[in-house]
Amino acid sequence: MLLSDLKRQFLEYIEIEKGRALRTVENYDHYLTVFLAQTKVTDPKDITNEKVRDFRMWLNRQAAGNNRATGDTMKKKTQNYYLIALRTFLKFLTKRGITSLQADQIELAKVGERSIDVISKEELTRLLKAPDSEENPEKRARGHAILELLFSTGLRVSELCSLTNDLDTRQDEFSIRGKGGKVRVVFLSPEAKIAIKNYLTLRKDMSDALFVKVGDESVIPKGFSRGRTLGIKKGSTSGNEKSKDDGLTRRSIERIVKKYAIMAGISKKVTPHVIRHCFATDLLSNGADIRSVQAMLGHANIATTQIYTHVTDKHLRDVHKNFHNKQN
Question: In CA terms, which of 54, 130, 239, 288 is 20 to 30 Å from 245?
Answer without folding.
Answer: 130
